[in-house]
Every structure is written in structure tokens, then in C-alpha cells.
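Q: Could you write out the predicted structure for this multi-component system? I'm mainly interested in how the pieces pack against one another.
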Amino acid sequence: MKALMYGWEFPPHILGGLGTASYGLTRGMAMQPDMDITFVIPKPCGEEDQSFLRVIGACHTPIVWHDVPMDYVKSRIGKYMDPQKYYDYRNHIYADFSYRYTNDLGCMEFSGRYPDNLLEEINNYSIVAGVIAGTESFDIIHAHDWLTYPAGIHSKKISGKPLVIHVHATDYDRSRGNVNPNVYGIEKNGMDNADHIITVSNLTRLTVIEKYHQDPSKVTTVHNAVEPLSPEILAIQDKKGVKDKIITFLGRITMQKGPEYFVEAAAKVLSKSPNARFVMAGSGDMMNQMINLAAARDISDRFHFTGFMRGKQVYEVLKASDVYVMPSVSEPFGISPLEAMQCGVPTIISKQSGCAEILNYAVKVDYWDIEAMADAMYSIITYPAMHAFLKEQGKREVDNIKWEYAGQKVRRIYDQLTH
Amino acid sequence: MKTICFYFQLHQPFRLKRYRFFDIGNDHYYYDDFQNEEIIRRIAERSYLPANKAILDMIRQSGGRFKAAFSISGTALEQMEVYTPEVIDSFKELAATGNVEFLTETYAHSLASLGDHEEFKSQVKLHREKIYSMFGIKPKVFRNTELIYSDEISGLVYQLGFKGMLTEGAKHVLGWKSPNYVYASAMQPQLKLLLKNDRFSEDLSLRFNNYNWNEYPLTADKYISWIASQPEPEQIINIFINYETLGSLHPAESGIFDFFRALPRFAAEKGISFSLPSEVFSLLKPVDSIVVPYAMSWVDEEKDCSSWLGNILQQEAFRKINKISERVRLIEDRRIRQDWNYLQSSDHFYYMNTKHTGGRGFSPYDNPYDAFNNYMNVLSDFIFRVNAQYPSSIENEELNSLLTTIKNQGKEIEMLQKEVERLRKKTVKGIIIEKN
């Protein structure tokens, strides 16, 4: 089974959960012996782990024919992919794109991030996808998240192979209902053209069926999983300098993540238990508003903001925490509570997050129910038995959520479509 | 005859280093030594040292007619002692002429006058002792942080034994009145006030180097003739400025030092003298009292305290330090006392202000929120240390009485021991006598 996947991020350079999920899923699928994956991203950095799949950079795929010698190609892109591929792709340019801005190799530039001209970059990406789909041989196309849907549709039109789209999030989650019509249009078009739709939770599945009017029989939920922690991360020490109990919010401080409910619950907990401390790790457009809110609630000496955290710092914060809280208003899945549980941190999640569907040993509350949230925080920091129970059971539970199983589910969908 | 009363403010805070959440409980050193040293050295070189030299020359060349008052915050003095002792020496030289006066303020240039009154008094006493130990002069005149003043503060200052105080001549307080007289506090008629002349002070501090000003360039001749042309009954012109105006705000190339050097000569021509605040207070009687129910300061157009306590971040931080001040005063640990003083500086609050986000106003932080987070992290660690001294479950009053009991018991034990000793000697003597 050969799969051609389109993604936007791939570790080590990731900006959000999409990269982590793409990596985990492909790794889990690569455990199947006959699975062959080609993964296209806009701009590889050259340090991607290619032991179990092939990474193709859209920025290294020519769309305009240039006569360049092998040695030169090798020196330019040899670090990222096999130079022979360049010539293969060059032979499959399907239209005259010389009016577009390209470099000396005939390739377009990509930022690989989420720039202001994102829609243009999405369009460019699907132009390149046409060349790749015309060259590669594969049985199925798999497109991750709305940015790559146009590329998936284009590839399907060229190759006639079935298209699976993977919905990691919808614009309904990001905007609390006020969708951007352009984004909605791309999402809807992708779903209409897909042969099958994979969603990361039943919550997202319902959104896809109700808001995007899809046939329920074509939509399947495959829950995300989590990679086992590396020994390097397990070895991180708890650097906490205070004896107080620490309750942590970790993520982008944006409307979707419900940070204000965390601050309000913190104020309630502190009125009963003055020895708790709260950490809001991350950055986002609501950060200053949250600093003001904490000051207005008179809890700033016990409510700390760390700013943006990357890589190891995330685990340092988790290791120092006694409770992890994710009060997301709408979360398609949410991998970070699983990571917290791996670190042995009891977790409180909102019922409105996708991961609540598969977790039994996490406290679940409605995101707006600050009373219940404060109550859960209080009992975990006050009753050692509660803390120990959630810590042990939670870790056991999350250790059994493996990408391998998620990969098998995806494989069954592939098999249905190709036979 | 008119007289000019010069007063210069010198202050440097101990700026905080980047203090992360993980440092709480682990790291108890809060200051950015590199930045503090760099700033005080730069300002000493560009401003304090050449300005002190200029003032000394002016005093000598005018035959002792030039006079000026200084208020140097305790934190600035400490930094000078460590990084630029030559500035201290030059101030001692100035002090020896007898033509300069040192004023008292709060030790760390704090906002305590707007918060905890006990704290305010202890900070003022601390500063008074510091000035005395360095220059051998007991200050008689008070000047609050950034000239902050209200009726309530005047009461406190009078209780501390000061006869006079310097403050702002804010338009919204004075109305039609002129700042060029001695006034008294409405609440404490015994406390005399000198009010800053906004126009003449800001000619120097703000406009001196401004090419767009229609009076540019300002010469000593012109400046003195303006002062001389003030109405006859108005006798004192109070020019209160930041000392950094000389050399730092306006660089030496702007001619600010030459301007100052020329002042005594032109003043003598017009028959204008220079006076120290304490001289003015002993010579002149107040013409009227002023009522200031809400605190004013010399900052910005508003002349109020909104630069330090204007938004909820600043109010929250200030509330938190006031909450623990009583407990801190019960602690004798020297490092805690020292950090407590340094954390009081009004500058930390100024960095959190959201009035100047357009660019005006100096801050070592990127934005007010950053300043707030950093300060609160430091304060959290500080509160943690304070609570580690005595359990926070004991009320302050109870703790105070316990501490007094312990102290008294110590004294009592000492006395009883003396008694025992005395009796022992007596009995020994008695035995010896009996034996004999």
C-alpha cells in the first residue's frame, strides 16, 4: 500500500499540534510492513526523521523547466532529497508556469509557516501537488488539515486515486462559531471531494456532519494518540523552588483555549487554599487581557505568566506541576493533556475537548463551569489520595493509547477504499 | 529683591533582572547588576561629575553667592558608593562649601506616602540617617518622591519634625495664584511649602535643547532677564529639576553647562540672589495656605500620580507590597530589609504604566505587562522569604507582642543573673566573714 500524504508541518520544526499528530500517525502506520509513505510538506528543514517515510519539499519541486546540471542540483537540494527525483518531477511539469515567480531551479518559494498570504501559499502548494501526483505512483491520497485539501483534490483529479482527508480541526473550533468564509469554503470543498473523511474525535465528526453537511457514512473518527516520552525527557528534574502546589495551564492563550475560565477558577481556589500557585505557560493574543484579569482578581502574586515555551521547557513546566488544566472551549482533540498524564500529572479537561472521549482517568468539567473546575483543582491539591490515584491510573491509561492502533484504523479505511 | 532657589533631584533604582517563574524559591538575588552599573557609570560620567564640577566652580567664582539644594535617594547613594565613589567625593566637596543643602526623602524614592504611613516614616528616617552618615548634615527640609504631595502627606511630614517641604506648583491646585511665594499646608499651617515654578523649571528641563521652541537658543542673559521681569512682590523663583538635565537629558554639546556657569554673573547684574530652601523658610512667612485633597506630583501634564498607580496592574502590585509591610518591619534579617527597600522604588511601578505606550517614558522592559510579570515574580519570592521567617498563621499583633516578650525576657534574664551574681558574692563574703 503506497500513500501520498500532504501535510503542512513535520518535526522537528513544528508550530502547533498538527506537526506532532502528523509525525505520530505516520510512525504508527509505518509499523505495518507493507506501508510506503511519501510525505509532502511546504518547506523541509533537512533534519526530518526519514527512516520510516520519504519527505518531499514543495519548495524543491520544479514547476518550470530549467536546464541544470546534476552536480548543481545535488549541491542545492541534495541535503533534502534524492537529486534524481528533481529530474523525474521536471519531466512531469503539466502546464506552463513560467509567468510565476520561481527560482533558478524552477521551484516556488514557501515559508512553511502561517504567513499573511496563506491563501496564496495554499494555492501554490496545490500547483506543486499536481507535479508530484503526476510523477509518483501511489494507491491513495491522504491530506492533513484544510491547508492541504486543495492539493489533495488536485492530486485526485490528476491520478484518479481515492482521496482521504484528515480533519485535525475545523474553523468552527478556532473561531467559536464566527467562521472565515474563505477557510470554510476550502474546508467544505475538500470534504465534498473526499472519498472518506477522518476526524480526530466524535466532537469533530459531529461538526463535520452538521456544519459541513457530510454524509455520516463517509466520516470516521480515528482518535489521536501520543508518542512515548524519550528517556531524555523522563530524566528532567522537577526544578520547583517552592513547596506550594502548582496548577498549570499550558497552550496558546487564545479564545479557543478558554484561559479566562482558568483565571476565574484560580481566584476561587486561592480564596480557600492560599498555598496554591498558578502558572499560565504560553503566549497569545489574550495574554495581556489575562494579566489584567489576574491583577483585577487580586491574585497576581500567586499567578505567574511564563511566556512562550518551546521543546524541553514544556516538560520542565509539566514536571513541576501538580495539576494540569485544559479548559478549552472547543478542542478537536488536544494532545497536551495526554503529555501531562505521561509525566504523571493529574489532569482536568473540558468536556468540550475531543480527548475527553477516550480518557477515563482525567477529571472532566464543562469549560464554563468554573465552580466545578475550582472544586476539582482544590480536591486534587488537598487530598493526596485523589492526586495519587489520578497520577497512577492516568499514566497507565495514557500509556495504552498508541499511534500504532490509530494507524491500523486508518489502514482499514484505506483498504475499504482501494478494494 | 528676588532670589532663585535651585533644587536638583538625583535618583537611581536597583533595576531587576529577568526573574522567571522557576527562579521563585531558588534564586534570591533580584538585581541586574550589569545594567545598574552601566547606567550609573554612564550618567555619572556625562552628568553628575561635570555638573558637580560646574556647581563647585560657580560657588567659588561667585564668591559663595551661588547656592543649590540636592535630594539624592538612598538607592542612588548606594550605587554611587559601589560603582562611582568619585561622585560621593565631589558631593562631599560641595557640602564643605556650606553652599549646598541636602534634603530628605524616602530612602528608595518610594510611593510609601500614598500607601502605608508607618512605612513612610521609617523610610524617611532611614534616609535622614544615611545623609547624616555620609555628609554629616542633618537635613531640615523634606522633599517627597517626584514632589508627590497632598494634605494628608503634609501632616505626616510635619509629625516627622520638618518645618518645610518642596512640592509642585500644579495649575489645578494653584489656579490664579503664583508659585513665587512661600505657602503653608492647609492641614498643618506650621508646615511651609515651596512650589515649583513650572515655566522656569521646564524651560531648562524640557525646552532648553528644543530647536522648534521660538525662544531657542536660551541664554543665561535672557533667562535671568525673564526672572527679573516677574512682578515686584514675587520674590522666590523655585527651579526644581532633575540633575540629569545637566549633561544627560541635554548633552554637554547643547551648552547646558556654559549656560549654568553664566547664571551667577547675570543674576548679580540684575541684583538677583540664590538661596537654599531652609534659608527661605526661616526668612519668609507664608502668604496663604493651599488645599490639596488629592495627591499631585511633578510628572506629565496631569501632575498627578497616574504614572505609578494609574492602572490595575500598578494598583495590584502596590496593594501587595502594602499588605506585607507591617510584617516586614518585624523582621530584622538584613538582606530582607535591604531587598524590601529596593523593591519599594517608584520606578518599578512606573515601568508598568500604560500611559506612555506610544514611546515616551523610559523602561527597561518591552511592555508594561512584562514589567508587571517580572516584578510580581520577584515579589512572590520575597513574600515567600518573609513568610519563612515567621509562620504566616500568626497575626502581626500577636507576633509583635511575642517578639517583645522574648526581648523583655532576655533583659529580665540578664537582670536576674546580675542579681544572682551579686547575692552569690554577698554570701561568699558572709561565709568568709563568719569563718573569720
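A: Regarding packing and overall arrangement: DSSP finds 16 helices and ten strands in chain B.
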